[in-house]
Amino acid sequence: MNQYPDSISSKLPNLGTSIFAVMTKMAEEHKAINLSQGFPDFEVSPALIDAVCLHMREGRNQYAPMPGILRLREAISANTKSVYDAVYDPEKEITITPGATQAIYAAITAFVREEDEVIVFEPAYDSYVPAIRLNGATPISYKLNPPDFHIDWEQVRHLVSNRTKMIIINSPHNPTGSVLNNEDMVELERIVNNTGIIVLSDEVYEHIIFDEHRHVSVCNYPALAQRSFVVFSFGKTFHATGWKTGYCMAPENLMREFRKTHQFMVFCTNTPVQHALADFLSDPANLKGLGAFYQKKRDFFLDAVSGSRFTGIPASGTYFQLLNYENISELDEMEFASWLVKEHKIAAVPVSAFYSKTINNRMLRFCFAKSEETLKKAADILCSI
Ligand SMILES: Cc1ncc(COP(=O)(O)O)c(C=O)c1O
Fold first, then answer.
1. Distance from Cα 384 to the centre of ligand 1, integer Å
2. Measured on CA atoms in the order 190, 88, 220, 137, is the torsion positive or negative?
3. pLDDT-derived band of residue 175, with 50, 70 and 90 as boundaries?
4. Is the distance from CB of 346 to CB of 374 less than 8 angstroms?
């Protein structure tokens, strides 16, 4: 085919293929166990699948209203009240989105301008920085360090300038599995008080949290909530990442602007899936037990690799476990991940891929949202290295 004649001026010149696509392709080529990409290898609830089929058969197959079907927004509002004791108006403050990623992009695009800076904690979910850059703004990264990847808010204060438009937080955190606590929220609140800074809080793993930890949501902090977008994903909560359905909540004045962007990015989200989720959410039992379910998998995986030379601090949340390989190799993370997939048939993600600067903590991220059989096979291999 003839090519576009001029030399292309890329808006994201330094961005290659996503690490997840790279590792998944390598996993397929080498017939490896794929613990790289973050999705479950077990099925969605049959009742939820039946509900989607039912709504399709009953003819709910055309465009949904732009902010999402009201029944689902009402169910989310009721659920938010019961879980976080926070009130979001389903009409004006909740929008259903095709996944959390689109909600993140829409929130950034609605507010962030060329002259702005956005503070991002790295390692970071891979969509944040490109979304900031595509809007012409500058990401200011705060580097989180092992072993606990905690935030020193005094240092964050030094990154804030009169150009700071947004701070993006993520808890439970992908890829590190760390979680924010009450003191983190109080410190963040102090930093943004009396500024025009908007907070974008990515809480897609809200229910996947372990041990003594409890999820702290910006919804619970009124002074933060009034300036925050909070983003969630049904994909993570109901093992249905391929359905790409999530939602965003924010006070009315912020949500009004969000919807202006959202309507011209996608207009609306898949109709029958929204109806099915509204049915499903109305039964609180469907939200219970997710933390315990994944904690069992985390413990199973950690126990199974305990005899290996890999080491790791148990993840506090998410379905990712970091493992350190410094007892095994001096290779950098990408080289080690490639070696692991080629020589030992296990795909994992180098944590360095979540940083914009070069780092080498000798850590890989393993997804444990897999059957025990898969986790056991993977652990047996890791123990043999
Ligand atoms: C931290 C984080 N945010 C957002 C997303 C995207 O969620 P969705 O699939 O609903 O777009 C992911 C998916 O891996 C994630 O890990």
1. 32
2. negative
3. very high
4. no
Give me ligand 1 centre to Cα 236, in Å: 8
**Domains of the chain, start order:** 19-38+288-383 (3.90.1150.10), 62-285 (3.40.640.10)
Given this model, what pLDDT does residue 5 score? 65
Question: 346 alpha carbon to ligand 1 midpoint, in Å?
Answer: 23
Is the overall model pTM greater than 0.90, yes or no? Answer: yes
Q: Any idea which residue has 């393993």 for tokens?
A: 366
pLDDT of residue 254: 98
Rounded Cα–Cα distance for residues 165 and 113 (Å): 8
Task: Give 200 Cα–ligand 1 centroid separation in angstroms.
Answer: 13
Of all protein residues, the one whose alpha carbon is nearest to atom 10 of ligand 1 is: 99
240 CB near ligand 1 (under 6 Å): no
Rounded Cα distance between 147 and 315, Å, is: 11
> In whole angstroms, how far apart are CA 66 and each of 137, 204, 242, 279?
27, 22, 21, 20
Closest ligand 1 atom to the C-alpha of 103?
11
| Mean pLDDT on 208-233 | 97
